[in-house]
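S.,

Sequence below, as promised.
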Amino acid sequence: MCCAYLNAPSTTMLTRTDVSNTDLFHAMVATDVLALTAPQLNMLQLAGLAQTIDFTNPNVATGLTAIFPATSKTYANILALSQRAATRLEAIFTTSAVSSQYGAQIDVPTLIEALT
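The prediction came back faster than expected:
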């Protein structure tokens, strides 16, 4: 029961480090891709060379979102794809959650002790 609770999604969002090219392809809208200029298409092809896309890298995130206009559906899809809900356990360790709020250092042994 405790594991199920901690593994459930929280309201905290995390930036993904492992977006596959397949996921990126599924996020694209054909009309948005057809409207790209040659330099934009070149950038998109370069992004496709990576096995996974790490949105925590600011150069990658900015470069990829710059390919599509901010008003396009593909842009919105890519932004949504770059985030995922943290599990409740992950949320405990984020800088905006409990540990920073109360100045406590939470490590794995402390967490295990608290849960047992």
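The chain is about 55% helix and 15% strand.

Coffee later?
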